[in-house]
Amino acid sequence: MNEEIIVIGNSFSGLGTAIAFAKYGHKIKIIAPKKKAQIIGGLQIAPNGLSALSRLDLDNEVLRQADKLLAVDIKSFELGSSLTNISLSKDSSPYLSMSRQDLFQILLKKCLENTLIEFIDSKVIAISDQLNNTSLILDNADILTASFIIGADGWDGKTRKFVNPSANRADSGYSIYRGVFPSSIIPTGFSYPNLQLWLGDSCHLVSYPIRNGKYVNFVFAFSEKFFSKTSIKSIFLNHPVLSILGEKSDFWNLTTIKNSELSFNWRRGSITLIGDAAHPMPPHLAQGAGQSFMDVACIETELANGSSISDTLDNMIKLRMPEAHSVARKSQISGNIFRMYGPFANLRNQIIGLAGQKIIDEFLQELWLSA
Ligand SMILES: Cc1cc2nc3c(=O)[nH]c(=O)nc-3n(C[C@H](O)[C@H](O)[C@H](O)COP(=O)(O)OP(=O)(O)OC[C@H]3O[C@@H](n4cnc5c(N)ncnc54)[C@H](O)[C@@H]3O)c2cc1C
Fold first, then answer.
1. For 34, 38, 288, 340, which has the most beta carbons within 10 A of its beta carbon?
2. How far apart are CA 135 and CA 267, in angstroms?
3. Ligand 1 centroid – CA 73 distance (Å)
4. What is the pLDDT of residues 153-177, one digit of tens each?
5. Ligand 1 pocket member 248 (CB < 6 A)
6. Is any atom of ligand 1 closer than 6 Å to the C-beta of 123?
7. How many domains does the chain have?
8. Which atom of ligand 1 is nearest to the CA of 14?
9. Which residues constitute the domain of residue 140?
10. Is the pTM of this model over 0.90?
């Protein structure tokens, strides 16, 4: 069977890519297992991500369902006191937070409504590249080929392994506890429409409301050298504000943070990588999905300008690779600042208290507007 465009993966970049191509009349097959685990937690959508979503005509629905954040409130983790407060409401484009599942449903609905997009309920189990012909072997025993295959199956997916088999991802020595709490059972300050960033000694906590403030999403990142991974309760014990969150250990999920090297190759045979498969993002600037949407927006812009599929994908790689790498580096720098310890952490908090507003404002504006 020979199809023109196949997309592997049905998360943010796979669904987004299908919507972009279908908008210009292309038929798409999305290969992904239909039964998808519930996507947990929240995500932030910065102005660049929202602008990218507008290219798919999804911005209005996202704005309807998302929470609009009014400020970034930076606090001392140890004391709970405010270091600085950066207004987000003056920006013409809003900064949003929303449930990851809700965002997924918006993209999925748009795909299901489009007769040009077909889903194949299957998983790619192997990829072969013989005689310049890229073939996908599916777990239902089908073998598919296509002139254009989009690898949107994430960093651990088959396509990234096929295109960049030697790319490395190593443990960073840092872990993350993530949790979503009903607002009714935690201190009220967390459900204000603010992004809170609590900077500590070798750790930081991020929180923001989702689903109209009914829930609050927490992310606590910490050095495994200085904190025990076995219990968030023991980490938050005796904290003046957070101890109540630590006591509810069932709400938290632990993951380790990996360091991925930048990938300079997004193409092999008919396969072009996109999203996390092409550029895994360190999590510190919450730009992973945003950058995936920017890949998709780039495809949409190329198609709108009349480019062929082949030129569209070539130009997407050419334009997006340096931008995505730049954001990944900025994210890593932010992570290094968040991770400071001892006297460096104290000095960081003092500088943020004195001059943080201007420095951070400029850093974020550059990131969100130019990236
Ligand atoms: C908890 C959490 C919080 C985050 N918060 C933010 C945030 O605040 N802001 C932000 O911008 N980003 C955030 N991110 C990052 C963001 O979610 C990712 O960057 C984004 O999901 C990447 O999308 P993707 O479609 O490229 O890949 P993925 O989301 O990894 O999706 C890959 C898809 O491919 C499918 N697949 C895998 N293997 C196969 C196969 N063999 N055959 C067929 N299908 C396959 C999977 O089922 C999956 O649906 C967060 C990530 C996590 C985990």
1. 288
2. 14
3. 27
4. 999 999 999 999 998 888 989 999 9
5. no
6. yes
7. 1
8. 25
9. 2-38+101-166+262-337
10. yes
